[in-house]
C-alpha cells in the first residue's frame, strides 16, 4: 500500500482524501518513511519535520472528517526548497553562512500552502544560495538523480526535483533565476513551471537576483501544477515586484485541446547545438501536437543571440551585490564554485549592466511581436541530458562542452523576459529524462499548462519511473 501511495500524484490522492478512503496520516507516514529510506541514496532533504508533519496530518484528518475540506492540497505532504522562509524554523539556503538563520515570518507561498492544508514534511537541499545547476553542495553533500544516482539532479532546485521524482515529497516548490525550476524538472522527469514575473509573490524567499527570480511548482503532473498555481498565485503588497492582475482558475482550464493552436519554433537559437536524441524527442512531441490539430510557424527573434550575455551580466551583478558584505568579511565560508561567481560579479561595470537591460528590453519586444503570430513557443528545456556528478563538462553529440554554459542556454531567456515557461517530460534518452519547454506570453500560464497537458496525455514517458520509486 505504501509503495502505491508514494507513486501517486496529487490529482490521484486528493479525491481519496476528500472521500475518506485515504487518511492523510497514512499518506504522510508513507512519504516520511520513504524520505528517510532514500535520504542516504538521494540526499534530497536538509531537514525532516517528522513529529510536526504527523501532528499536522492528524489535524487535517480531523478537519476533513468534520466536513471542512479545503481543496486539492488539503492533507498532501510535501517539502519545500530551503530558501523559502518558515517562521521560527532554520532556513539555510544550503549554505554555511546561514546555517543557523531563523526567519521571523513565513514566506507568502508558505502561508498560502499552509492555509490550503498542506502538510510540511521538511526542507529540501539546493545548490548553495541557488547559484548553480548541479546541486553538488560542498557543505551538505551532493543530491543524486533518482534515475541514475551517479548523475546530477539539476539545480538549483535539485532537492525539489529529486524528492518529487523519487516520491519523498508528493509535490514541491522551486525557485528559478536562470532555469532553476525547469532544469531539475527536465533532468528528473517531472513538471516544472516558472510563472510570469510578478504572478507569484517572492516575499520570504532569499534572493539570488531580484529582477530574475521566480517561484513556481514542481510536480508529478500538469494538473498538480495547475492546482498549486491556484493556491500560490496573486498580488502581494509585501513583494514590490508583484503584479496586481486577475488570477486564472488554472485547474478548471485544463482541457488539452490544441486544435488550431499555433506553435512557434525558433530554429536559430532553441534548436542550435542540441543533442541529436534530445532534438528528435522534442520534435516528436511537437509532431504529436500537430497530429491533434496544431500548426507550426517558424519565428525569428534576433536578440536571442545576446541573451546569454545579458542574463549573465544581470545575474552576476545582482547576486554579487546581495552577497558583497559577506564576500568582504568571510569569503572562505562560500563554496569554491559560487565564490568564484561572486568574484566575477564584481567585474561588470554600470555600463555593462545597463547595456544588458537594453538587450533585455529589446528581447521582450521581439517575444511580444512573436506572440502576436503564435500562441506558444516550444523548444528543448535543455540541449543535453544529466551529467555525471563532479563533472564540469557534459557530452553533446560526442564532444565535451562546458556544463553551465550549455545547461542554461534555453532556460535563461524566459528569466530575462519574465515570460512563463513550463518544462514537461517529453521522453527518455536511454534511462535519462528529456524535458520539452513551452513558453507563453505574459500571464498565459493557463495556456502553456494546457499545451503541457496535451503532451502529457500522449504518455511520452511510457509510464516509466525511477527504479527507486517503483521498488520502494
Structural summary, described in words:
This protein has helices spanning 2-7, 10-18, 24-42, 50-65, 108-115, 158-166, 182-188, 222-232, 267-270, 276-291, 307-322, 324-329, 336-344, 350-370, 403-407, 412-417, 445-456, 467-470, and strands at 45-48, 77-81, 119-124, 136-137, 141-142, 172-176, 191-194, 214-219, 262-265, 295-298, 376-380, 393-396, 399-402, 421-429, 432-439. The chain is of the alpha+beta class. It has a single domain (2-470), classed as Amidase signature (AS) enzymes. Helix 8 runs antiparallel to helix 17 and helix 11 packs across helix 14 (350-370). Keywords: Transferase. Belongs to the amidase family.
Topology:
Elements: H1 2-7, H2 10-18, H3 24-42, E1 45-48, H4 50-65, E2 77-81, H5 108-115, E3 119-124, E4 136-137, E5 141-142, H6 158-166, E6 172-176, H7 182-188, E7 191-194, E8 214-219, H8 222-232, E9 262-265, H9 267-270, H10 276-291, E10 295-298, H11 307-322, H12 324-329, H13 336-344, H14 350-370, E11 376-380, E12 393-396, E13 399-402, H15 403-407, H16 412-417, E14 421-429, E15 432-439, H17 445-456, H18 467-470
Parallel strand pairs: 2-3, 9-10, 9-11
Antiparallel strand pairs: 1-3, 4-5, 6-8, 7-8, 7-14, 11-15, 12-13, 14-15
Amino acid at each position: 500500500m505504501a509503495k502505491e501511495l508514494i507513486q501517486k500524484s496529487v490529482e490521484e490522492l486528493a479525491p481519496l482524501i476528500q472521500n475518506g478512503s485515504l487518511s492523510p496520516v497514512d499518506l504522510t507516514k508513507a512519504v516520511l518513511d520513504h524520505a528517510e529510506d532514500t535520504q542516504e541514496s538521494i540526499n534530497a532533504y536538509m531537514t525532516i519535520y517528522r513529529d510536526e508533519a504527523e501532528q499536522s496530518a492528524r489535524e487535517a484528518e480531523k478537519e476533513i472528517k468534520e466536513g471542512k475540506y479545503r481543496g486539492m492540497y488539503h492533507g498532501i505532504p510535501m517539502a519545500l526548497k530551503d530558501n523559502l522562509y518558515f517562521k521560527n524554523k532554520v532556513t539555510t539556503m544550503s549554505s554555511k553562512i546561514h546555517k543557523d538563520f531563523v526567519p521571523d515570518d513565513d514566506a507568502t507561498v508558505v502561508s498560502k500552502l499552509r492555509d490550503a492544508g498542506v502538510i510540511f514534511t521538511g526542507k529540501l537541499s539546493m545548490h548553495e544560495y541557488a547559484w548553480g545547476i548541479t546541486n553538488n553542495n560542498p557543505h551538505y553533500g551532493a543530491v543524486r538523480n533518482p534515475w541514475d544516482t551517479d548523475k546530477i539532479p539539476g539545480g538549483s532546485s535539485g532537492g525539489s526535483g529529486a524528492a518529487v521524482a523519487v516520491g519523498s515529497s508528493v509535490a514541491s516548490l522551486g525557485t528559478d533565476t536562470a532555469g532553476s525550476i525547469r532544469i531539475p524538472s527536465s533532468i528528473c522527469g517531472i513538471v516544472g513551471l516558472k510563472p510570469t514575473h510578478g504572478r507569484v509573490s517572492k516575499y520570504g524567499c532569499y534572493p539570488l537576483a531580484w529582477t530574475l527570480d521566480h517561484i513556481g511548482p514542481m510536480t508529478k503532473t500538469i494538473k498538480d501544477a495547475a492546482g498549486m498555481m491556484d493556491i500560490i498565485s496573486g498580488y502581494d503588497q509585501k513583494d514590490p515586484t508583484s503584479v496586481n492582475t486577475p488570477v486564472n482558475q488554472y485547474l478548471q482550464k485544463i482541457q488539452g485541446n490544441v486544435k488550431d493552436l499555433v506553435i512557434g519554433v525558433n530554429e536559430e537559437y532553441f534548436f542550435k547545438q542540441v543533442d541529436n536524441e534530445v532534438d528528435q524527442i522534442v520534435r516528436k512531441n511537437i509532431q504529436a501536437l500537430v497530429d491533434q490539430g496544431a500548426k507550426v510557424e517558424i519565428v525569428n527573434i534576433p536578440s536571442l543571440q545576446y541573451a546569454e550575455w545579458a542574463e549573465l551580466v544581470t545575474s552576476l551583478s545582482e547576486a554579487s551585490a546581495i552577497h558583497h558584505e559577506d564576500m568582504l568579511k568571510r569569503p572562505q565560508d562560500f563554496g569554491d564554485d559560487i565564490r568564484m561567481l561572486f568574484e566575477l560579479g564584481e567585474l561588470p561595470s554600470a555600463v555593462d549592466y545597463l547595456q544588458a537591460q537594453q538587450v533585455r528590453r529589446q528581447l521582450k519586444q521581439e517575444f511580444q511581436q512573436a506572440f502576436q503570430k503564435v500562441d506558444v513557443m516550444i523548444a528543448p528545456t535543455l540541449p543535453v541530458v544529466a551529467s555525471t556528478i563532479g563533472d564540469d563538462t557534459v557530452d553533446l553529440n560526442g564532444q565535451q562542452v562546458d556544463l553551465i554554459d550549455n545547461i542554461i542556454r534555453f532556460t535563461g531567456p524566459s528569466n530575462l523576459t519574465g515570460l512563463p515557461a513550463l518544462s514537461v517530460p517529453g521522453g527518455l534518452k536511454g534511462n535519462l529524462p528529456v524535458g520539452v519547454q513551452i513558453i507563453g506570453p505574459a500571464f498565459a500560464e493557463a495556456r502553456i499548462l494546457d499545451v503541457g497537458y496535451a503532451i502529457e496525455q500522449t504518455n511520452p514517458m511510457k509510464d516509466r519511473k525511477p527504479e527507486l520509486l517503483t521498488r520502494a
